[in-house]
Amino acid sequence: LCSRLKILLLLHCLLFTSKMPALTILEIHEKSFEINFTNFSSVLDKVPDLPIVIISLNGCMREGKSYIHSYFMRYLKNEGRPHWFESVLADNEMFSWRSGSTRETVGINIWSEPFITQQNGRDVAVLLLDCQGLFDPSTTYAQNAAIYAFSSLLSSVMIYNVKTKIEEDLLQKILLFSDYTDSISSKNPEHQDTKPYFLFLLRDFEFVEEFDYGFHNKKERPKRELENPGNYFDKIFTNTEEIHDKNQAVRVAIQNRYKDIGMFVMPHPGGKFIRDSRKNPPEQDFQNLLKELVVHIMSHLVTKRIGKEEVSGKSFKTTVKHWADLCKDSNFPVAETFAETTTRLQNDQASTMAIETFKMKYTRILYSDHSGVSDEEFRKTYPPLLKEVIETYKSSRSLGGEDLVADYVSKLTEKCELYFEEHCLALNAANRKIKEQKLSQEEERKKLEQARLEAENKFNKLQAAFRVVELLSTTLNKGFDMAIAARKAKNVKHLKPLMNFMSYE
């Protein structure tokens, strides 16, 4: 019996430790796609009130995306402490990864536990997405599009893993799939800083004689070994006469879809690592740059937004549910479909919040001294409050054009007017009646009080008269008693003072 128990315990431990806490959120089937809302919401429910940062890694298959993710986890689990890079993670503490030609990740996986970290002095929740490698022989173009499109919709920090160099066809694909990012971003130029962050991660970089390893963007470049290193961002994105007009337009469009675009250039990890990554670490240069890459990403966290509005775990859950419903068909929806449904959802939420604000403010008025006035006076509260509520709606949405906003403002006005006419005016009239009843009761109370005071005054006067009569009666009785006593004593000299006293009284 003891031997059997030991075997069962061993099996349990093996099953537990081999279970990977990564959850599939985009399932790829042979002829369909499915967003696993249950898995996604189980993660979002753990951080309902925190802003969320969603970091995704995309790129072609078997290029080490899951391996890179393992170092993000090291950093986050160790909260950036000095020796985070050297920490060891068990297999069940990171996304599954391995060498070889066979794909490891299928669809899109999310790490089941959010990581709480600091951004600008506040707590944010970091969610990590591991995406299936694109353009493998087993994946159709439609499936590739779905993987990239959905990761674009979700990500606030998007990393695209590419080998050796950036080519023109890659930029074309980035632009195509970035339509999904653009579909849920505000078109207002003032909201440019609310868009996602995009980073090209260049592995096994070719042009080492021209460009140093490290981070390049439109403002900076690394300076390591080369005397006059170039800026690879400028090489790819700066418009020059050498670039065809159509290709220039592609570059401009890509940059308009993101808050910022960077490039991180890295060397080859080494032949030993490629042959057996479990036994051999990457070469030291690769490790040093990998550490720099992780620190760069963690210092450039961007929270997820819909339009310009920052989302929390709770609010993003509603959006993901709508997206999951859209994907119940066999075809992954085009960007315009996501744009339309997300725009409607955001405006619906903003309108609902505005109406609730309107109701809340009138509830306060109706329970205050400003209620119970005449209808004419009460109607004066409506125009400024309606204006305030419309501004609340407009400030709470950032998707949709002027025609859509005008439509929502019209409907919002109708709903507010109906609520005011049927609810607020009726309650004000009821409060006025109560006030009138209270006033009538107060007047009646005053009359009763006045009558009571008058009766009390009369009673006091009667009491005073009774006291005078009582005093006279006592005095007379006293005089008569003296007279009777004197008569009995036949003492005339006592009688005269008595008569004089009685005459005086």
UniProtKB/TrEMBL annotation:
Pfam family, one: GBP
Keyword entries, A-Z: Coiled coil, GTP-binding, Nucleotide-binding, Signal
Coiled coil: 427-465
All copies of domain GB1/RHD3-type G, residue ranges: 49-320
Entry-linked InterPro entries: G_GB1_RHD3_dom (IPR030386), Guanylate-bd_N (IPR015894)
Secretion signal, residue range per the UniProt entry: 1-22
Family per similarity comment: Belongs to the TRAFAC class dynamin-like GTPase superfamily. GB1/RHD3 GTPase family.
Descriptive protein name: GB1/RHD3-type G domain-containing protein
Natural source organism: Allacma fusca
